[in-house]
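User: Continuing from earlier, I have the next pair ready.

Assistant: Great, send them over.

User: Here they are, in order.

Assistant: Folding the first of the pair now:
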Amino acid sequence: MSFDTFAIGFDHRDRERLHALWDGILDDEVWSDGPLVKAFEAAWSAWNGLPAVATSSWTGAALAALEFFEVRGKTVLCPSNTFMACPLTILQVGAKVEFVDCNRDDLCLSFADLERKVRLHRPAAVMAVHIGGHIAFEIERIAELCRAEGIVLIEDCAHAHGASWDGRKPGTYGDAGLWSFAPTKTISTGEGGLLVSGSSDLIEFARAFRNYGKPDFDTPGLNYRMNEFTAALGIVGTERLEEIVGWKNRVARTELDPRHPARLVLPDGMVSGLYKYIVFDPLERSTGKVYDQPCHRVLGHAVDLPNTDWAAANHWCAPLYYRPAAVPALQAVSA
């Protein structure tokens, strides 16, 4: 079997478990924002270490965080080497987006350029993005700078399912963490998102925000509720998360690392969820780039971001998809 073809990271051994949860939804006739949503939030919170609020998409979680921190009319710093969802959501809440360069070793937000942009733009918030499945190498320095300057730090953890650094999970360094469970993600619910935070006020705000601000409508918001069928997929995926990440890391270490000496190398103590296996030499068989169009170029911003432009042209992704039923873990990538 070829492993160049995309595969959703659902373990088909979980079909019976998933169908039982779905049957329970049909029996109970509670289809949205019910007990399985709460169970998914609890399961993710147990893994991530922070209270969680599930939403219908990453966008719903991001909008909740940005509205809570009242960035409208202010500047938010954002890496250009990311998906357009980040700047578009910032613009949607009425903030101004300014772009920051990335590093060439981790493809994540550059602390050196962030320091410059903080002095230049005096932002209200920074959005840091964990690219490719690993945690941004400079996230602790970024968090320290934001705390010292009174800047809100929002972590986009959409790629980072299963990642950790000396046991610490993504989303726990800043004021809020945003997760995506879209179809390509390591854990997918089809569509879906989730916000984590140590701020009880933000958690309360996000719960109201996703449901039109009910019951008193004092909180801004629309419908970003997660339905029960989606939550069931999240529960099953979260139960399988550590196994999926362990499987992918065994394959990476035994099969891919020997073939790709010019790969992205992690710091000691860091585990990547391996949403992408990134290399810096051209690959004949590649799943493409993480991002090949920097956001600042898409939006026409006249800003010099040399590392971001370099990264767009000089990295590739080797195929690595979770398929435990097809072959043993150590033979998971065909030659």
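And the other member of the pair:
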Amino acid sequence: MKIVASAGREDVALVYIAEMDSGKLVECVESLQPPLPREEKWVLLVSTMFGCPVGCMMCDAGGYYEGKPSAEEIFAQIDYLVYRRFPNGDIPSRQFKIQFARMGEPSLNPAVLTVLDALPQRYHAPGLMPSLSTIAPHGTAGFFEQLLEIKREQYSAGRFQFQFSIHTTDQATRDRLMPVKKWSFAQIAEYGERFYQPGDRKITLNFALADSSAVENGSAPIDAQILLSYFSPEKFLVKITPLNPTYRALENCLSSHIDPNQSEREYTVVVALREAGYQVIVSIGEVEENYIGSNCGQFLRRHLSNPEPIQDGYTYQVQPY
């Protein structure tokens, strides 16, 4: 693997475009959470596919699909990011998070399981915490059963972060935003009940929240009572994030319900969820990451191929290596 280009800032986030020996390209990211130093928290994002076949309406990585990286091709991304900072593989970060979330739906690539199983032995990283985010596509039951076993054997007692990307409780809108057949809320809840064990982190229900105009029937983007009918607040939490600036969101006339520039604002939907008993995290990261193009749903190569840049995102120059 060789790095062909990058963009970003050392003190916030760096995105790398990497070429595999096959000639196929991926992107990977390392980021910090200012003001925390790297020794406190360090986050890596790696790609699990060459492109993505799902085509979510807000994600720039879904414009093409060229197959699945092998376990070693996924490890090549992690190795580059790790050994660039820590040449001996000894990672002192109190929280060392690896998110399988840059490009691709991880449950569609069995190699992700191989990587998760081998990670604890690959580096000396007491703070290691993998993070897997999924839309739970139809036909992936075998992947999730194996994931359940790996998590129980390797990542008990809160050392694994598991997230279902749901985005709305309105089923018609959910199908429009993520246009593939996927698990129902009942299936997600049943699996989550088995996945969660005492001492684990709560399972995250993630909403990259578009405003109400995106919901086909005009209802609220999240209905707390619908969530309560499936998901126990004792085992599931709700994370709400802004809809990041992407070309796909612009093309599909999607705007964010959460204003990333108003971190203290109180939202009606958040109040309703907390009153229903849910732990709610309004996750607004560094706005600078939107300009870098390192946030969820962003994809540097989509930006490079677009003749008309969007506002509020991808403003950093991509530097060739």
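Worth noting for the second one:
The first strand starts at residue 2 and ends at 9. The chain has one domain: 2-320.
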